[in-house]
Write a structure and sequence with these properties.
alpha+beta, 10 strands
Length: 353
């Protein structure tokens, strides 16, 4: 059976097309009708739940992901290759790692326009993590166990460099994150001036001056998520935890993901009281993939990447469409990561590289 032709707009999807997609994925039956509604809190993508009626072995519902309806956010998704990367991950890489993701029935994209559709398992009645509220230490432990199952299978795997989307930046090429961060940091500080304390202002500027050192990592790399945080996690439902939103995958240091999660997803007091135990849990799971690391090295890398969430918040808040929840989310990420970076003296670690 040939792969169904792409329909990349949710409002143009038909019962016949969904039937083709599900049959292509090995699910027998026929979709006679469906209802649809938008779900989730994505800034760059649009998620739609389709509740199905029909015959055969159909699921009650499925979820489709499409490009954002907001023109600013969509352009960001195109420029950063977010849509291309997510389709690539599900089609080429997901089977090679052990982290739990939704089962994907269909993923396709038009290379020239970046219009795409991903049709996947509905993770209901699982609940999306809440980036603003933060998570419990137990949920953080689940997330770090899962993270090791992403990093471990491809740790130090140089074959990843052969994929164009993951190929390392050439030495002579400018670091895009550095240039974007330094371009938007003044605007970020002005826009959110009344929501940041002096220490946050100083950390934003201090990180901006260390972006070259931050990007200069020469150790073993692996496949990383880049945006590993609560809004991209579903707790409960079909799985204890499933991770979504693979739009930013990269080849890099595993601690970029780990410190990013810890700095953005735990409340600062919980993070400070439990970070050593949680890091040891992550390292223990990595050992099952024959990846071992001395504690001093792991702790240094953890401190080094503490600004990861701040960097993402500064950049993303200035290049995607603005929403009230988005502003609250970026502030939670920025201020928590700023405090973490200060407490762990991350700028000193970067300066000593």
């Amino acid at each position: 059976m040939s792969k169904p032709a792409l329909i990349h707009e949710a409002e143009k999807i038909t019962p016949d097309w969904l039937t083709e997609v599900l049959n292509f994925a090995g699910i027998s039956g026929r979709v006679d009708s469906f209802t649809s509604n938008s779900i989730g809190t994505g800034q760059v993508g649009e998620n739609v739940r389709f509740e199905l009626k029909g015959e055969g072995n159909l699921p009650n519902s499925i979820v489709g992901k499409f490009a954002s309806n907001d023109p600013v956010s969509k352009q960001t998704g195109v420029q950063l290759q977010n849509y291309v990367k997510e389709v690539f991950f599900y089609n080429e890489l997901a089977a090679s790692v052990e982290i739990q993701t939704p089962q994907v029935h269909y993923a396709d994209i038009i290379a020239e326009t970046h219009d795409f559709a991903i049709i996947m398992e509905d993770l209901a009645p699982g609940e999306q993590g809440d980036q603003i509220k933060g998570c419990s230490v137990d949920d953080a432990a689940l997330a770090l166990e899962a993270l090791a199952k992403l990093h471990g299978p491809r740790w130090g795997d140089r074959s990843l460099e052969h994929y164009e989307l993951l190929a390392p930046r050439k030495v002579e090429e400018p670091d895009p994150a550095k240039s974007i961060y330094q371009m938007v940091q003044a605007g970020f500080l002005e826009k959110y001036a009344n929501r940041l304390v002096n220490a946050d202002h100083e950390m934003v500027m201090g990180v901006g001056g260390m972006m070259e050192e931050y990007a200069d990592f020469k150790g073993e790399k692996t496949l990383i998520h880049i945006d590993y945080r609560l809004d991209n996690m579903m707790f409960g439902g079909p799985y204890p935890l499933a991770v979504v939103d693979w739009q930013s995958i990269s080849l890099g240091c595993a601690f970029n993901d780990l410190s990013y999660f810890m700095g953005t997803s735990l409340r600062p007091d919980d993070r400070a009281a439990n970070e050593e135990a949680l890091l040891k849990l992550y390292l223990d799971v990595l050992k099952s993939y024959d990846v071992t690391m001395k504690w001093d090295q792991a702790w240094t890398l953890y401190r080094r990447y503490a600004p990861a969430g701040l960097i993402m918040a500064v950049i993303a808040s200035m290049i995607v469409g603005e929403t009230e929840r988005g502003n609250d989310m970026f502030m939670a990420m920025a201020t928590r990561s700023s405090q973490m970076s200060s407490e762990l003296e991350s700028l000193k670690v970067l300066a000593s590289n």
